[in-house]
Amino acid sequence: MKWGDNARDFDTALAVWPHYRPLFDNWLMQELVEQGDKAPIWRDRRVPTENGRVRGDIYPDREAALSAAASLNQTLHDALAAREMDAARKRSLQLKVAKNLQSKERLRDEEELMLAEARRRHANDPRPDPSAIVLPAESVPFRQELSEQLSDMPYLRVVIVTVRETNRSWHRSILYLSHDNKWSKPYIAGERSAAKAMRARIANGFGYSADDHWGKTKAKIRQILLPRANQLLQLASVQRMLAEALANGHKVLVSNGIVFWYEEDGGIGWQIKQTTSTKESEGSTLWKEGTIRSINHGRLVILPYIKESGEQVRGHTRNGPNDGRAKPRHPDHYVDIPFAQLDGDLMIGLFGELPYE
């Protein structure tokens, strides 16, 4: 197919995001495209070749994909800002772009933290001797590749491997570990099984199956990580970070669903809370300049957000559905607190300082 033969080639892209494809072991750029009066949608990005044909916008590694995405997103951001159009519609589009990118970023940061924690939980596990790995004859060619993956993640029960047919031809297969610690024959991977093999790198590390509902599995992992987050307050590096934040007037720091909250009432000091969302705030654009209005001592924080209409909604605190009513503050102690975001990589590093028993 030639570039321009399809109407989609003329659609307006608003943003891009690199998506890892385990089945092909590469990164395919996705693009957020304008849909008139409908909400923008994500789809695989296509680009023209030098001879005028069409190809997917593919990158061989994460670094190249992220670099290209950062550059292109800035170009697309500037193009939308410079577009001559109704001001209200432009603002609405900008909010939708921000919302979609924030959603992708939150998902990436959360799963990267979970993967790092899965590895740490098993850092002291014994690594299998390659020769001791029990394999059927069909899987023997993968002994070395399997051993390398188990050396990194000894908890894996599902592994994706590469089958080399010729120098240029290859495909991916899946190996499964049985309950008697014997690995299966290779099964040719499809997109779904390849995705499950990647999820196993997180799920198996916390004792869950990659076949379980992914959203429910991650919800369970969040609850496992919360006590670890409370331990962060004991780290000297975190105490220094929080002291510096307080000196700069920051009393709420947020990253990966974890909130460092400075509680002045009662002289409590720094404590850990969690972010959550309401039906209305779910999927909305984070209002980074907004404040959190706290009239109670709830353990959950709904961050400020912006509706697609442009209305700005202040954040608030509350308890979970099974926590009972949050202890109210005295009206004299109601507070409006701005918040700051911490980099996801910083949180991964801080969690890495915590020892495992």
Commentary on this structure:
This protein has three domains: 7-119, no CATH class; 130-212, no CATH class; 226-352, no CATH class. Helices cover 33% and strands 25% of the residues. The protein has helices at 62-82, 87-121, 143-152, 191-203, 214-231, 236-247, 344-352; strands at 13-21, 26-35, 38-44, 46-48, 54-56, 58-59, 158-164, 170-176, 187-188, 252-255, 258-263, 269-276, 285-286, 291-294, 300-302, 305-306, 312-313, 315-318, 335-338, 340-341. The strands form five sheets. Strands 19-14-18-15-12-11-10-20 form an eight-stranded mixed sheet. Strands 1, 2, 3 and 6 form a four-stranded antiparallel sheet that branches. Strand 7 (158-164) and strand 8 form a beta hairpin. Helix 2 packs parallel to helix 7. The protein is flat. The termini are far apart. The mean pLDDT is 91.
